[in-house]
């Protein structure tokens, strides 16, 4: 498996969890402290930090600490890997549907000639 596949697997693993997807969605608006990110979730801060670590390990987010405050920011580069994969899949399926449409038109034309 190439590095692209490994990175993509870790991105999809990280995004498989609804809490982590919500964090990514929130960080799409702009940076936020861990406390701000954790606020909407009914879990202890240590449990929430596990989600933050998964996102950091995947490279989807990075954080910086100033004093006692840790601020998280979205790192769009690894998220772009998932976007590229979806774009590739979309192109493959669009081509397949175009081929199917062409075949159906051809078959309809043959039926009309009969």
Question: Mind explaining what this structure looks like?
Answer:
This protein is α+β, with helices and mostly antiparallel strands and 114 residues long. The chain has one domain (3-113): Arc Repressor Mutant, subunit A (Orthogonal Bundle). The protein contains five helices and three strands. It has helices spanning 3-15, 18-27, 34-38, 45-58, 76-113, and strands at residues 32-33, 61-66, 69-74. The protein has a three-stranded antiparallel beta sheet. Strand 2 (61-66) and strand 3 (69-74) form a beta hairpin. Helix 1 packs antiparallel against helix 4 and helix 1 crosses helix 5 (76-113). The longest helix is centred in the last third of the chain and has 38 residues, at 76-113. The radius of gyration is 22 Å and the shape is elongated. 12% of the residues are buried. The model has no long low-confidence stretch (mean pLDDT 90). GO terms for molecular function: DNA-binding transcription factor activity. Residues 1-94 form the HTH arsR-type domain. This is HTH-type transcriptional regulator.
């Amino acid at each position: 498996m190439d590095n692209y596949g490994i990175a993509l697997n870790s991105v999809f693993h990280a995004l498989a969890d609804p809490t982590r997807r919500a964090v990514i969605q929130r960080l799409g608006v702009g940076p936020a402290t861990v406390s701000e990110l954790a606020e909407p979730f009914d879990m202890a801060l240590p449990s929430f930090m596990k989600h933050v670590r998964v996102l950091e390990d995947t490279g989807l987010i990075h954080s910086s600490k100033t004093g006692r405050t840790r601020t998280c920011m979205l790192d769009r580069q690894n998220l772009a890997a998932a976007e590229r994969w979806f774009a590739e899949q979309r192109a493959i399926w669009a081509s397949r549907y175009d081929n199917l449409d062409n075949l159906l038109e051809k078959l309809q034309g043959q039926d009309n000639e009969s």
